[in-house]
């Protein structure tokens, strides 16, 4: 894969925004791939009993979607050398076929002499951020 050249990246660059729908079937596929079958991700009754607003998306799925924005931009998923976040707000996923719409944006906050760039990511659901300070460090081409 061809990575984005370092000469084309500057501090303040904005990544192309992305909208992603998280549906119940996506939760099932993610649970199978990750082996995370916690009932808060598929059982309405259980989710309500533990105080959640309903079935919620896996935090790591939400983080992966944030990182997908960065890997699409840089042109190579292997270019992400570090990623961090805090899980701050659940993403309820209704069982309606439409799911939850995530709005994902990113901005370059630092370009280093070692050929890496730091990207601050924002993931929002219904106008509220759901991840705390997500960032990715990427190796540029």
UniProtKB/TrEMBL annotation:
TM region(s), chain numbering: none
Coiled coil: none
Family membership noted in the UniProt record: Belongs to the enoyl-CoA hydratase/isomerase family.
InterPro entries in alphabetical order: Fatty_acid_synthase (IPR003965), HotDog_dom_sf (IPR029069), MaoC-like_dom (IPR002539)
GO molecular function: fatty acid synthase activity
Organism: Kutzneria buriramensis
GO cellular component labels: fatty acid synthase complex
Name under which the protein is recorded: MaoC dehydratase-like protein
Alphabetical list of PANTHER family matching this protein: (3R)-HYDROXYACYL-ACP DEHYDRATASE SUBUNIT HADB, 3-HYDROXYACYL-THIOESTER DEHYDRATASE HTDX-RELATED
One Pfam family it belongs to: MaoC_dehydratas
Ranges for domain MaoC-like: 17-107
An annotated GO BP: fatty acid biosynthetic process
């Amino acid at each position: 894969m061809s990575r984005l050249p370092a000469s084309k990246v500057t501090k303040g660059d904005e990544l192309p925004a992305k909208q992603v729908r998280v549906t119940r079937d996506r939760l099932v596929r993610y649970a199978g791939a990750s082996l995370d079958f916690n009932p808060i991700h598929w059982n309405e009754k259980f989710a309500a009993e533990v105080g959640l607003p309903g079935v919620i998306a896996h935090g790591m799925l939400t983080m992966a979607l944030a990182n997908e924005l960065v890997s699409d931009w840089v042109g190579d998923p292997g270019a992400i050398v570090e990623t961090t976040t805090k899980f701050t707000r659940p993403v309820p996923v209704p069982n309606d076929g439409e799911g939850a719409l995530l709005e994902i944006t990113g901005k370059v906050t630092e370009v280093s002499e070692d050929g890496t760039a730091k990207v601050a990511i924002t993931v929002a659901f219904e106008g509220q951020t759901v991840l705390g300070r997500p960032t990715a460090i990427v190796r540029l081409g």
